[in-house]
Specification:
Blueprint (H helix, E strand, L loop, with lengths): L29 H11 L9 E9 L5 E10 L21 E7 L2
Antiparallel strand pairs: 1-2, 1-3
Length: 103
């Protein structure tokens, strides 16, 4: 809950403590991922919760970078809901950092 991690926290694996592993296909949408998170994180079910998604990926030298790819509201339909992992150029080996903001 709260903000995104820093890219350097992903050296070789996801930051520990609030990691959630999900299995999906490249046609999985940000809305579908949001619903999966809400199933296991009670606080994420808040009516006014907002989710922002960033891809975290290494360059050729192993330095990690972060790129924001979309945002989804817990209960309202938005423009990024239908974005798929394929459309945001998610690749095997990348991480998806999800920040959840609750009022």
């Amino acid at each position: 809950m709260g903000g995104h991690h820093r890219p350097e926290e992903f050296r070789g694996r996801a930051p520990e403590g609030d990691e959630l592993q999900m299995h999906t296909w490249k046609d999985g949408s940000l809305r579908e991922l949001t619903e999966l998170v809400k199933e296991v994180r009670t606080a994420a079910r808040a009516r006014e919760a907002r989710f922002t998604f960033c891809i975290v990926y290494p360059d050729a030298n192993g330095k990690f970078f972060m790129r924001e790819v979309g945002g989804v509201h817990s209960t309202r339909v938005g423009k990024d809901d239908k974005k798929t992992l394929h459309e945001i150029r998610f690749q095997t080996g990348d991480f998806l950092d999800v920040a959840i903001y609750v009022k």
